[in-house]
Amino acid sequence: MPSRRTSARTFPDNPSGIHLLKDPAVVRRMIRSAQLDPQDLVVEFGAGTGKLTSQLSGTGARIIAVERHPDLVARLERRFSEAENVRIVAGDARSVPLPRRPYAVVANIPYSISTSLFRRILTPDQTALQEADILVEWGFAKRVTAEQPRNFEIAWWQLRFELSIVGRVRPHSFAPPPSVDTAHLRIRRRSGVSAGLLQQQERRLRQLYRPSRRLRRR
Ligand SMILES: C[S@@+](CC[C@H](N)C(=O)[O-])C[C@H]1O[C@@H](n2cnc3c(N)ncnc32)[C@H](O)[C@@H]1O
């Protein structure tokens, strides 16, 4: 058992983008927005000390809490050892296996992995992601919700998912505070988009944008 308590102060130089949520109102808003029930499967990337995890667990949904920092993994394992609906996964959000059955994401992720994580959960044709409530850097949220997407990748995400900003979260809601504002981003899979329409729209987007070489969908 580690002798010291793992807290935001344990990470003075903060290489892992650790900004622990300390504002209960933000946590409540994310849980309310996600509208989870016991049938749902939820992935929380970057679970930290488990503040959001514990509220997610309270919904009765099955929670997969992914965390990379070993001290935090140990702490999460202790904290949720009795919670039957919470599984702690020690690993990198950019490479842990993702569910094949429909799932939601509710998470406060490190800013630095936003793009790679979005590529994993939004880009593939076969993604099982249904919806997400995620805290991301404000500027990133503005880019992915822009009416005129700046590239094919974002246009592709917007084609199949509705992305919207629910609210702005100020630095003092986290410990330690980040240097910029955060956004609560809501993502919902669009319903009623047929495969035929999707192909047609994709062709149109490819004419408008030069697709990024990094766009891997399968
Ligand atoms: C912004 S903090 C959020 C912590 C917690 N969810 C909260 O809201 O208090 C991001 C968390 O992601 C973890 N993390 C950083 N990089 C990661 C990665 N590549 N994969 C999984 N977790 C990561 C950090 O250790 C940290 O616990």
UniProtKB/TrEMBL annotation:
SUPFAM superfamilies hit by this protein: S-adenosyl-L-methionine-dependent methyltransferases
Keywords for this protein: Methyltransferase, RNA-binding, S-adenosyl-L-methionine, Transferase
Residue ranges of domain Ribosomal RNA adenine methylase transferase N-terminal in the record: 26-191
Annotated InterPro entries: KsgA/Erm, rRNA_Ade_methylase_Trfase_N, SAM-dependent_MTases_sf
Gene Ontology molecular functions: RNA binding; rRNA (adenine-N6,N6-)-dimethyltransferase activity
Keyword Iron attributed: no
One Pfam entry name: RrnaAD
Residues the entry annotates as binding S-adenosyl-L-methionine: H19, L21, G46, E67, D92, N108
Taxonomy, superkingdom: Bacteria
Signal sequence bounds: none
Keyword Chaperone: no
Family the entry assigns: Belongs to the class I-like SAM-binding methyltransferase superfamily. rRNA adenine N(6)-methyltransferase family.
Protein name: Methyltransferase domain-containing protein
Species per Swiss-Prot/TrEMBL record: Phytoactinopolyspora mesophila
UniProt lineage: Bacteria, Bacillati, Actinomycetota, Actinomycetes, Jiangellales
